[in-house]
Amino acid sequence: MALARVRRTRIDQLAEEGNRAAILTQRAMEDTDGFISACQLGITIATLCLGAVGESTFAEDLAKLVESVFSGVISSASILTAVKGFCYILAFCVTAFLQTAFGELLPKQWTFQRAEQTILLFIYPMNVWCWITRPFNYVLKGFTEIVMRACGVKDVLEHEQVHTEEELKMLVSESHEGGVLEPEEEEMLHSVFDFAETTAGEIMTPRTDLIGIAGSATVKSFVDVALKHGFSRLPVFEDNPDNIFGLVHIRDCLRAILEHKESTSVGELARKVLVVPENKSLGDLLPEFQKMKTHMAIVVDEYGATRGIVTLEDLLEELVGEIADEYDIVKEYIQPQIDGSILIDGKLDLEEANEKLGLNIEDEEFNTMGGHVFGMLGHAPELGDEIKTDQYILRVEESDRRRINKLRLIMLKSPEPAPENGTSTSGKKRNTKSVEVPRN
């Protein structure tokens, strides 16, 4: 029990410091089957000895005592025999209780609380016992393997003993519930597991929000745009933002200005930019960022059209949460209102909305709340358009006909009938279209 619960990293640390007991423990960890077999053999021998000696001795002494006390009172031989039988049953119960309490439960409880101290204390006698019982263990192990193979059970391979990703996530959650991990630590560890499954298309800045600059622009124009929007790097395009061919850093432009080359075009300073498909996983993208020593990549679809950009900061935010510098404007994607409704940014991620708002929205085609509502409406969104389920109403509050910028979420305590003839809940006529979403 102590060998299974002790931390391997702690034992390795003590072994490196020269702790002899830790070194012996390392050897035991390398041959856990042999160590456990020796322990089980010792437990079996101790149990048999306790049963053979303790039970019979205690039962016989108790029977003799009862017979000597009640021999003059009880004359019937059958009653005396029954009393002796009861003594043997009582002896068995007492022996079983002592064996269970002092031989099983108490040692295990002690080990649960002090696994490291226990293994380091008892590893010396256990090492001697393993050496003494090694021949018996070989015989038992061989016999066990023969029986297991006869039953069609193969040996457990090493890779079958490791934890799966889902099991590791459960261990992280249990560690948080047990007070070992802080909420922030739990969230970060879960983010590490989800990192490789997230794609560039899910976290990119869409092309419609992209701030870029034409390659023909001067470095002075670049500095003006960079200062206005608070960016140090900008993608450089030719003719239109769909044709991005490079990346320029503000330091290159400032160097050109210091050298009195203000008229230099941005295209002359452009560096090679990384281009990745939108289904590129972040686990594969991060090594490419490191290899190319770049902080930005252009995300394209299967037809080569620009979908957006993804930066190294975007990747880091997937691991540690939102990162804001002194130039960033912190944007609230979820804004509770006085009337109980919630104002939602159209770019809010569906997964985040489900987590923070208690929704259960599933959409394989869209990743954002705005995209989800757009897809459900099936037409260019207009102010007041809404979709309704038995749980909530999502109403368009701001749009530019090509995308939804703001939504209002109204939670429903119970299913309510949909407004008729474009009538809102306030009773005022509005030019709206309502889409009923059927229950799953």
Description of the structure:
There is one protein chain. The protein has 440 residues and is an alpha+beta fold. It folds into four domains: 159 residues, no CATH class; 31 residues; 121 residues, CBS-domain (Roll); 103 residues, Uridine Diphospho-n-acetylenolpyruvylglucosamine Reductase, domain 3 (2-Layer Sandwich). 51% of the residues lie in helices and 13% in strands. It is built from 17 helices and 13 strands. About 4% of the residues have low confidence.
Keywords:
440 residues, CBS-domain, 4 domains, 4-stranded mixed β-sheet, 17 helices, 13 strands, 51% helix, elongated
Topology:
Blueprint: H1 2-5, H2 8-16, H3 20-30, H4 32-70, H5 77-113, H6 115-132, H7 134-150, H8 165-177, H9 183-195, H10 200-203, E1 205-206, E2 213-214, H11 219-229, E3 233-237, E4 244-249, H12 250-258, H13 266-269, E5 274-277, H14 282-292, E6 296-300, E7 306-311, H15 312-320, E8 334-336, E9 342-345, H16 350-357, H17 369-377, E10 386-388, E11 392-399, E12 404-411, E13 434-436
